[in-house]
């Protein structure tokens, strides 16, 4: 089987490309390298530098390679940035994905896996969050992904494109073999920021809000290892190949940890005191986001291999201290 991975030089796309290669598939990557890094794209893939909204390039790729399906990661993904530039998010995420789906329809590519997000749920009414929870995103990033999800049934009905939209919770960690990891500039995510303190790149961790309605006052999140997430994509493709119905699926471990609990684990893993500085709440942060992963386990047969929070932090820590070897 041969798959097109958009954003395959990014954090989640590169790990998924590794998982596809390990499963014996061939991989073609399309990445414009605005936030991705050529060094993260695995050896042995065909690589194209370009935009997902470039219809001519997509047609060329589909004509050159017998693509069995598309895994679509290329996107803007910063909630804060989306609050300042909603149009940029609707164009890059929703608009360019319409171009990609249209090119797939024209070229007869009929399987699609979308990198979606827990941000589609907004402030949850119920935790753990099941997939049938109402979708009411509170930021343009979440809405840009929800709009893609809303387009998909039409591409299925009219063009026969079968799909899975995977709603990620908090993705963290790095390839246990050190081949890829998180490399964002600027870095906004909790675990890499905490580790930057341990590494001496930051003086302290800014803790955004300790007055949430949670046991220790800090936000609770569901952290999922990026390699477990990558495995779920391979299973989603298998489910589509086995003619399971299209649909949405949460990906999270189903267990929540507060910001303070994450910091405490990171202190144990790194042996560094990791000083904190209390700061006001970050706009748009829900107090608690934890997935129900019943559908992923029952319908995809997904079993996390690195579900333990310490293991997630350890792999991220190994990557953070060695990524310089890759020139990153
Ligand atoms: N946090 C800090 N200090 C930091 C960074 C984060 O206190 O330096 C806190 C945040 O306020 C939040 C928690 O740590 O309470 C987790 O923050 P992240 O930025 O790591 O992750 P988010 O939960 O904000 O975002 C993730 C994904 C988004 C997705 C969102 C769904 O990265 O793409 O979940 O709500 F949209």
From TrEMBL:
Coiled coil stretches, renumbered: none
EC number of this enzyme: 5.1.3.2
Domain (NAD-dependent epimerase/dehydratase): residue spans on this chain: 4-252
Protein name: UDP-glucose 4-epimerase
GO BP, sorted A to Z: galactose catabolic process via UDP-galactose, Leloir pathway
Needed co-factor(s): NAD(+)
Assembly behavior: Homodimer.
Reaction catalysed by this enzyme: UDP-alpha-D-glucose = UDP-alpha-D-galactose
Family membership: Belongs to the NAD(P)-dependent epimerase/dehydratase family.
InterPro entries according to UniProt: Epimerase_deHydtase (IPR001509), NAD(P)-bd_dom_sf (IPR036291), UDP_G4E (IPR005886)
PANTHER family: UDP-ARABINOSE 4-EPIMERASE 1 (PTHR43725:SF53), UDP-GLUCOSE 4-EPIMERASE (PTHR43725)
Gene behind the chain: galE
NCBIfam families registered for this protein in UniProt: galE
Pathway recorded for this protein: Carbohydrate metabolism; galactose metabolism
Keywords: Carbohydrate metabolism, Galactose metabolism, Isomerase, NAD
Single annotated GO MF: UDP-glucose 4-epimerase activity
UniProt lineage: Bacteria, Bacillati, Bacillota, Clostridia, Eubacteriales
């Amino acid at each position: 089987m041969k798959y097109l991975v958009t954003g395959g030089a990014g954090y989640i796309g590169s790990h998924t490309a590794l998982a596809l290669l390990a499963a014996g598939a061939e991989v073609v990557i399309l990445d414009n390298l605005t936030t991705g890094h050529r060094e993260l794209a695995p050896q042995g893939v065909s690589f194209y530098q370009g935009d997902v909204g470039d219809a001519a390039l997509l047609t060329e790729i589909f004509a050159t390679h017998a693509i069995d399906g598309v895994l679509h990661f290329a996107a803007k993904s910063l909630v804060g940035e989306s609050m300042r530039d909603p149009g940029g998010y609707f164009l890059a995420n929703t608009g360019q994905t319409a171009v990609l789906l249209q090119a797939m329809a024209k070229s007869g590519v009929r399987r699609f896996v979308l990198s979606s997000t827990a941000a589609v749920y907004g402030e949850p009414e119920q935790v753990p969050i099941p997939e049938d929870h109402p979708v009411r995103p509170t930021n343009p990033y979440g809405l840009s992904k929800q709009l893609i999800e809303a387009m998909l049934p039409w591409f299925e009905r009219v063009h026969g494109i079968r799909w899975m939209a995977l709603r990620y919770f908090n993705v963290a960690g790095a390839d246990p073999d050190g081949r890829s990891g998180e490399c964002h500039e600027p870095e906004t995510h909790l675990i890499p920021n905490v580790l930057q303190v341990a590494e001496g790149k930051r003086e302290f961790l800014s803790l955004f809000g300790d007055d949430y309605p949670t046991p220790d006052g800090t936000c609770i999140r569901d952290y999922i290892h990026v390699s477990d997430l990558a495995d779920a994509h391979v299973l989603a493709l298998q489910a589509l190949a086995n003619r399971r119905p299209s649909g949405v699926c949460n990906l999270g471990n189903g267990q929540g940890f507060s910001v303070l609990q994450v910091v405490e684990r990171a202190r144990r893993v790194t042996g560094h005191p990791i000083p904190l500085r209390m700061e006001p709440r970050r706009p748009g942060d829900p107090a608690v986001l934890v997935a129900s992963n019943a559908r992923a386990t029952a319908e995809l047969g997904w079993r996390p291999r690195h579900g333990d929070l310490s293991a997630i932090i350890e792999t991220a820590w190994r990557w953070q201290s060695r990524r310089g070897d890759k020139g990153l």
